[in-house]
């Protein structure tokens, strides 16, 4: 066993790479008061706002750190599909992003709801919706990555859905709170160490 020191201001997480190589048996769609709204070429500012709402608690920052042209190019890529999760009043409460950039594969890039909805069963609905969209003609594998900084229920939920772990990695990165990308008070479960 070894402890590895991080550079000052850095964070580390264990990332689990997961795959589903065959479509799971169809099950009844979980009930939900939400709907998916396709965002075709979303405005970067609108996308960033929702991305921060769903991901800041888990220190998601990658899309927030991208400059405007890079984010617009990523979101406008023909292999990228973005959906907002909307409540009955049209308020966006979640995000689903799929990538079909690799032939025969779908990557569940981002699957998230606002933290206030955690533990209420809505994640099961969102993951079922993601898989319904992912498994289309020509797709033979669905992939995703999750990390130890994500919601603790994420990995077990992916396993229950039929994903299997195919690799594990350690990712280190500058703490986005110290970089000014995210507020210093987000992710209180992760100590802020400069």
Automatic annotation (TrEMBL):
One GO MF term: acyltransferase activity, transferring groups other than amino-acyl groups
One Pfam family from the record: Acetyltransf_7
Domain named N-acetyltransferase: residues: 37-185
Source domain of life: Bacteria
Name this polypeptide is given: N-acetyltransferase domain-containing protein
Signal peptide: none
InterPro entries the UniProt entry points to: Acyl_CoA_acyltransferase (IPR016181), GNAT_dom (IPR000182)
